[in-house]
Every structure is written in structure tokens, then in C-alpha cells.
UniProtKB/TrEMBL annotation:
The chain crosses the membrane at residues 24-43, 63-82, 91-110, 116-140, 152-173, 179-199, 211-228, 240-255, 275-301, 313-330, 337-357, 436-458. The keyword Signal does not apply. It is a multi-pass membrane protein. Its main location: membrane. Signal peptide: none annotated. GO terms for cellular component: plasma membrane. Keywords: Cell membrane, Membrane, Transmembrane, Transmembrane helix, Transport. It is found in: Cell membrane. Residues 25-460 form the Major facilitator superfamily (MFS) profile domain. One of its GO terms (molecular function) is transmembrane transporter activity. This is DHA2 family multidrug resistance protein-like MFS transporter.
Length: 463
């Protein structure tokens, strides 16, 4: 018997999926988001080996990383907005298909240009997945359980980012770099078919995508990321000024083009809501803290403390473990307590953990490092799900795509900005770069905590 599509009225009244289909839908979302998050960091570890095998210089090989990040940041908001027009399920399903095919292309790459081209497509596929995943959660989970859904999603994203270097090291210990990308193929195919079968249809917005605005968006965010990276590496003013001016002009053209639009690609309409704006600021600052820690600490552990790469991977593990423990707990608590309170407490713990890492003694043993990393992970895990819920529930249901895009773009901007700051810290002082980065991370976490607590004075909008 052919299943009759639900009407817009039925879609609007539907409150989540039944338990069985909900589990399969969450599995599809988790696989897609997990692969996209893992590939944000996993290639860093293998970069020297890839460069040597493809006969590329270090400067050329950096584009293996940069093009993935540029593609994700540049296309994320347009793809999130496309989800409001054609359906979040369709964007997620085709994002999975593109990401999987591109992963196979990366594994089969025969030259640096072919690998960069495949990574670019992989970044676009990842942007499609990251751009609509939180919007899909609102359709997958009943309203009374949405905090649990966001907690699970936060767990997947945080753990994937945290275990990226360790996973890469384990793969490279027994296989060639091609397997860093090849491991995505079978899970990607499986997730594609599960997503087609179980992801729910959602109500369409009725708006149309503005192609010129999308081009402005792609150019503006790509130039912004290039500018941040070049600033970190102290490039010349002759390069920095044109990048900054071009990005500013494109952002201005984008805002002018979409002035008065009911669903703009760059969701300025949502940023007029204080709770949404504060939650986005909190997210950017917190992911900057995470990136400052995870990019700088391996250098500190290996160079200053003399640990091996494998030992470093294990020393980073307590952060991920505590996120895994705390994220579901915080998700459940966010269904009962204000996100501003939970997030503020978690970020205060994260800032304290970063300060503790900064004061790590030179003769530190594994326990000294472990409890400090665990404190950071506890604070980070306690923040993420409540903040995600605050962002998504402060936007009207019809703008869930735009809100979902902001969730992902805030995370990527924070991580990208944090990585750029680490590069700047090491450029300023090779001996004390890690300490400077940790101090900056503690400051960002403190600002995020203040921003989170300030949400307690802001009323939650009613829809």
C-alpha cells in the first residue's frame, strides 16, 4: 500500500516520531553529523604524510584542510535556507550522498588537485548535513523531549571533534592515509538509505532561494575565513586589506539584497531576538575555547612534556569522556531548567578548567593532566545541549532552517577563529604559544559564561 504524503496541516500538528522510527532517524542524523564533524579535524594528523606521497609542499598541502573548511562555512547558510524551501529531509539525504561519494573520491585521489577537488565536494556535503540536522531534530523528537535530542546531538558533535586526532593516529598506525576518507563510505551508504526511509517530512516555507544572495553569502564567508587564517599567519597588509574589504563589500551587498526578506540567508531577523543573539555569541566563544585547547595542547604535551603522539591521544581522552557523560544529562536537565543557568554553570567550569591547564606543572603526571581535562570536558558537555535548545526554541518553527544554520556556522566560526588564534600565539612566541592559547581560551569561556547567565533576564519568545 502506497503511503500518502502528509498535508501541511498534518505536518504542523505532528509532535515528533514514534520511538522506533525516532531511533532510526537519530541514527541517520548521528552518522551524518559524526562523519562531517570528524572530517573537520581528522585530516590534520595525516597532512605531512599526504603531502610527501603526493609530492606537495607544506604550503600547498594546507589546502587539503582549508578547502574543506571554506566549502562548509561558505555554503552552510544557503543550504540551511534551502531546507526551508525544499524540505530538511531532502537536503540531508542528498548531503549524505554527496559526502559519501566525495569521501570515495578522496580515497581514490591520485594528485593534490584531485584530492582538493574531492575535499571541496566533501565540504559541501558536510555543510548540507550540518546545516539542517538541528532543524530535523525538532521534527524527530516530541516537544517535551527536545532537550534529550539536542543532548544526543551535542554528544555526537563534541565527541567526534575531540577524538579526531586519536582516530587518525590509530588508522595511520595500521593503514595508509587514504583510509582516513575511505572509512566514511560504508557508514555513508548505510546512513543514506536509513535517512531516505526514516527521516520525517517537514512543512515547507513557501519562500524561494535568491541565487544572487547565495553567491554573495558564499563569497563573503569564504573571504572571511581566508582573512582570519592570513591574519593568524601574519601575512602582508597588501593581502589582508583586499580580503577584508572584499568580504565587507559582499556582506553589505548581501544585507542590502535581503532587506525586508521574510527568511534571509543571513538570518538578521533572528539576531534581533536577544535570546537568540546571546545564545549564538555563547556558542562562538565556547567553540573558540575548545579549538584553542585542542589545537594547542598536543604541541604542549609532545614538545614541552615529551609525550608520544599515542600518549597525547589518550591524555586528550578525558575531555571527550566527560562530554559523553554530561551531554545527555544536560539535555534532560534543559527540559526542566533555564538554558542560561545550565550553560553559565558549565562555562564557568570550562573557564576554571582552562586556568587549571594553564597552571599545569612541568613535572605533571597523567592524573594531573587527566582531572584538568575532565573538568574542561564536564563544563563543555554541560553547556552544549542547553545552548542548542535555546537557539532552536528562540526561533519560530518556520525559521528552523535558518536557526539550524546559525548553530553550525557559530560552531565553525568559533573553531576556525580559535585555530587562527593558536597560530597567532605560536607565531608570537614559539616557547609560550600554548600558554597564550590556553589563557585566551579561559577568557573566551568566561565571556561565554557571562553571556549565558545574562539570558536569565531575557524572556523566552512564545510561538
Amino acid at each position: 500500500m502506497t503511503k500518502v504524503p502528509m498535508t501541511p496541516q498534518e505536518l504542523e500538528q505532528q509532535d515528533g516520531l514514534p520511538p522506533g522510527p525516532r531511533g532510526w532517524a537519530m541514527l541517520a542524523i548521528a552518522l551524518g553529523v559524526g562523519m562531517a564533524s570528524l572530517d573537520t579535524a581528522i585530516a590534520n594528523t595525516a597532512l605531512p604524510g599526504i603531502a610527501a606521497q603526493l609530492h606537495a609542499t607544506p604550503a600547498e598541502s594546507v589546502w587539503i584542510i582549508n578547502v574543506y573548511q571554506l566549502a562548509m562555512v561558505a555554503t552552510l547558510l544557503p543550504l540551511a535556507a534551502l531546507g526551508e524551501v525544499v524540505g530538511y529531509k531532502r537536503v540531508a539525504v542528498w548531503g549524505l550522498a554527496l559526502f559519501t561519494i566525495a569521501s570515495l573520491g578522496c580515497a581514490l585521489a591520485w594528485s593534490l588537485p584531485s584530492l582538493i577537488a574531492a575535499r571541496l565536494l566533501q565540504g559541501v556535503g558536510g555543510a548540507a548535513l550540518m546545516g539542517v540536522n538541528t532543524a530535523l531534530l525538532r521534527a524527530v523528537f516530541p516537544a517535551k523531549m527536545i532537550g534529550r535530542g539536542f543532548g544526543f546531538n551535542s554528544l555526537v558533535v563534541a565527541v567526534a571533534f575531540a577524538i579526531g586526532p586519536t582516530t587518525a593516529s590509530l588508522i595511520l598506525a595500521s593503514a595508509s592515509w587514504e583510509w582516513l576518507f575511505g572509512i566514511n563510505v560504508i557508514p555513508g551508504i548505510f546512513a543514506f538509505f536509513v535517512a531516505r526511509r526514516f527521516l520525517p517530512a517537514t512543512k515547507l516555507s513557501g519562500h524561494r532561494i535568491d541565487r544572487l544572495a547565495s553567491l554573495y553569502n558564499v563569497g563573503a564567508f569564504a573571504l572571511l575565513i581566508l582573512f582570519l587564517g592570513d591574519c593568524a599567519h601574519l601575512e602582508s597588509w597588501e593581502r589582508l586589506v583586499p580580503e577584508a574589504l572584499a568580504a565587507a563589500v559582499l556582506f553589505a551587498l548581501l544585507l542590502r539584497r535581503e532587506a525586508g526578506h521574510p527568511a534571509p540567508l543571513l538570518p538578521v531577523d533572528l539576531f534581533r531576538r536577544p535570546l537568540f543573539a546571546l545564545s549564538s555569541l555563547t556558542s562562538i566563544c565556547t567553540f573558540a575555547t575548545q579549538s584553542l585547547a585542542f589545537v594547542s595542547l598536543p604541541f604542549y604535551f609532545e614538545t614541552t612534556l615529551g609525550r608520544s603522539p599515542i600518549e597525547t591521544g589518550f591524555l586528550m581522552t578525558p575531555w571527550a569522556v566527560m562530554v559523553a557523560i554530561m551531554a545527555p544529562v544536560a539535555g534532560r536537565l534543559s527540559d526542566r531548567y533555564a538554558p542560561g543557568l545550565l550553560g553559565g554553570i558549565g562555562l564557568a567550569l570550562l573557564s576554571a578548567g582552562m586556568v587549571a591547564m594553564l597552571k599545569l606543572p612541568l613535572a605533571a603526571d597523567a592524573f594531573d593532566i587527566g582531572w584538568r581535562m575532565a573538568l574542561c570536558g564536564m563544563g563543555f558537555g554541560f553547556f552544549q545541549a542547553p545552548n542548542l535548545k535555546a537557539i532552536m526554541t528562540s526561533a519560530p518553527p518556520g525559521r528552523a532552517g535558518g536557526a539550524s544554520g546559525v548553530v553550525a556556522i557559530s560552531r565553525l566560526l568559533g573553531q576556525g577563529g580559535g585555530a587562527a588564534l593558536v597560530a597567532y600565539c605560536f607565531t608570537a612566541s614559539s616557547a609560550h604559544g600554548a600558554s597564550y592559547a590556553l589563557a585566551a581560551g579561559a577568557a573566551f569561556a568566561a565571556v561565554a559564561s557571562i553571556a549565558s547567565f545574562s539570558r536569565l533576564a531575557v524572556a523566552q519568545p512564545a510561538f
